[in-house]
Amino acid sequence: RKMLSVTDFRKMKKEGSKIAMVTAYDYPAAKLSEKAGADMLLVGDSLGMVVLGYESTIPVTIEDMLHHTKAVTRGAPNTFVVTDMPFLSYHGNIDTTMKNAARLMQEGLCRALKLEGGAEIASTVSALVKAGIPIVGHIGLTPQAVHQLGGYRVQGKDTAQAEKLLSDAVSLEQAGAFAVVLEMVPEELAQWISSRISIPTIGIGAGRYCDGQVLVYHDLLQYASPLKPKFVKSYAELGQHVTEAVHSYVTEVKAGQFPAEEHVFHLNETVSADLKH
Ligand code: KIV
Ligand code: NA
After folding, report:
1. Is 232 left (phi over 0), alpha (psi -120 to 50) or beta?
2. 183 among known catalytic residues
3. Closest CA to 51 of 250, 165, 59, 187
């Protein structure tokens, strides 16, 4: 199927067809998610937590994002890939921000970048958009600010916070962002924001009325993800399958049951190739 573009995502919002996004951090996840029909892949800095084992996304570097983005774009050559700009890689002077963005685009070969923040980063978003880079905003719970927010908690519950989030979404749209992620906000607020801007909203823990949804790959597969927040639905129990499979292997090795006759080579045996894929 053909690669979708920012124009398609805008059209999908207009037509009311939902955008399905999932995170991916490596070649197999990208390949399988493309095959599964995901509209958009996100190389989220959540990789710091779900694949690198950090306690937050703060330790994640540009080098980490590049390493994983390269694998994802190789695995999903026909899918629109968005990459997160990691902690403090877009808060210094604009030259440094541009250099970091250039590396992710030129070496990572992704199609768009995502930045956390609202009105306060609008001028940065605007500069990146003017340089030709499609940008996704991210407001509500912004994990790079976890220590300021006092934990991973629902955002925008009072009127003042809700109005601030709406004005942030409007600022991002005006700055030229083509989509905005709404993370952990009440459904009513996400619905309100979605109706007030013309760019698609992609929700995570933001209810049913966003223009699209995103989930973390390891969460939806229950693949050793550290947390299971209320907004996650498990579509598989991969962690359990992996544990059972590796345990069977370990048990068979110890019992001398693996390898068996069909797995071994013999002298004087003629085989067309020693390795079969
Ligand atoms: O890093 C990530 O996975 C994200 C999504 C949760 C939106 O930013
Ligand atoms: Na992220």
Report:
1. beta
2. yes
3. 59
CATH number for region 6-236: 3.20.20.60
131 CA distance to ligand 2 middle (Å): 22
Region of 256 (left: φ > 0; alpha: ψ -120 to 50; beta: rest) is left
Predicted local confidence at residue 275, as pLDDT: 62
User: If DSSP states are collapsed to H, E and C, what string results for 146-161?
Assistant: HHHHCCCCCCCCCHHH
CB–CB of 6/112 below 8 Å? yes
The arithmetic mean of pLDDT across residues 13-37, rounded, is 98
Q: What residue ranges do the domains of the chain occupy?
A: 6-236
Residue identifier of the C-alpha nearest atom 8 of ligand 1:
44
Distance 99 CA to ligand 1 centre (A): 22
ipTM over 0.95: yes
For 158-193, the pLDDT digits (tens) are 999 999 999 999 999 999 999 999 999 999 999 999
Helical packing angle, 122-130 and 159-175, nearest 10°: 20
Question: Which residues surround ligand 1 with Cβ inside 6 Å?
Answer: 23, 42, 44-46, 84, 138, 181, 183, 204, 214, 216
